[in-house]
Specification:
Structural class: mainly alpha
Pfam families: DUF485 (PF04341)
Helix content: over 70%
Number of helices: 4
Largest sheet: 2 strands, antiparallel
Protein name: DUF485 domain-containing protein
Order of helices and strands: HHHEEH
Distance between the termini: 32 Å
């Protein structure tokens, strides 16, 4: 009647040990080092836009070109920054995260395959 979340793996892979491995810790660190600063930066940018829209009507209504004002430009830049961050993350993941994850996955699949072969031999 214990907590199964703390039980050791019964299969070929000890996922608790894998979670504590240096490779996995490095992968998580690489992910966090990108995601947290970018998320904080984007949230600051987003809330600045919201606060300016709510409290700086005169600034946001400055006409830039024809009927295009600062508020409209900032609003469109929200979309641009979202797509830019997404593109940046995909490039980062392809370059840095995916190779690390693939190495971990390959190692785990070898463990599973070798365990399956040893069970077949028995």
């Amino acid at each position: 009647m214990g907590n199964s979340a703390h039980a050791r793996a019964e299969g070929p892979v000890d996922f608790i040990a894998e979670q504590n491995s240096e490779e996995f810790k490095s992968l998580r660190k690489s992910h966090r080092n990108f995601v947290f600063p970018v998320a904080i930066g984007f949230l600051v940018w987003y809330f600045a836009y919201v606060l300016l829209a709510a409290y700086a009507h005169d600034f946001m209504s400055i006409k830039v070109w024809g009927n295009i004002n600062v508020g409209l430009i900032f609003g469109m830049l929200q979309f641009v920054s979202t797509f830019g961050i997404t593109t940046w993350y995909v490039m980062y993941a392809n370059r840095k995260l995916d190779p690390q994850a693939a190495a971990i996955r390959q190692r785990l699949e070898k463990q599973i395959d070798s365990d399956a072969k040893s069970k077949e031999e028995v």
